[in-house]
Amino acid sequence: MPVVFLSRSIDEMKRLEEMSSTFQSSGVDHHPPEPKSQTERDEDSGGKEQPWEMVMDKKHFKLWRRPITGTPLYQYRVFGTYTDVTPRQFFNVQLDTEYRKKWDALVIKLEVIERDVVSGSEVLHWVTHFPYPMYSRDYVYVRRYSVDEENNVMVLVSRAVEHPSVPESPEFVRVRSYESQMVIRPHKSFDENGFDYLLTYSDNPQTVFPRYCVSWMVSSGMPDFLEKLHMATLKAKNMEIKVKDYISSKPLEVGSEAKATAPSSERKSEGSCGPARIEYA
Questions:
Q1: What is the pLDDT of the chain when averaged over all its residues?
Q2: An example Gene Ontology cellular component term from the record (predicted)?
Q3: CATH superfamily of 3-278
Q4: What is the dihedral angle through the alpha carbons of 93, 98, 99, 104, rounded to the nearest 10 degrees?
């Protein structure tokens, strides 16, 4: 993962932590729109980005949105805190696809299609229920994670891709525009309770509903998903449910598992996503 991306993620996390700490100590109930980083100020000067607008403001959960220039869509940003689970547990539960099938009732299908043992990138096919009367959506996306022990931060990034082994199905609506970045910063260490997280998210769900309807669905659905993720982490912790430790598993140490999920020889003839194809950023 590029050093510039990690550095920017860490800077944004620190800035939001400082902002949150300042308002909590001053006793102010309502926060102004999120202050901009130097990168965002530079982008604004070129007319590329819109300002962030606060949508939800709770003590440990803050949600912003901003219009994506040239589209009817929004980009969303969440800054939150959990104090009853460890960063490692929360990070691993997010990544464990098998466990997610058990705790997320909206999942219809979730499979790792291909894995690059060198970079640790994975291509996944995710099919999920959408609110009635909409059709279910499916996503094909590449994800990659990084653990920076020196800066005490974890990063998980995902974005939509094409893959020859997962053609579009008439059963579902394919979401072709999707990006997500999660940054987790422990209060102390990876194995002690307490951390802040910063989630930046955007997608185009291909609906015919107006922008405000889509915004409402995302704005209400995102807190619900994050709380389900939090409760699944608590359940795994309290019931000692076995969850794969992705922090300890280095990319080169998962060779046997990667072989099991790599494209078969039959699929290779159709073209496959090798390391260069599934590299993220």
A1: 80
A2: mitochondrion
A3: START domain (3.30.530.20)
A4: 100
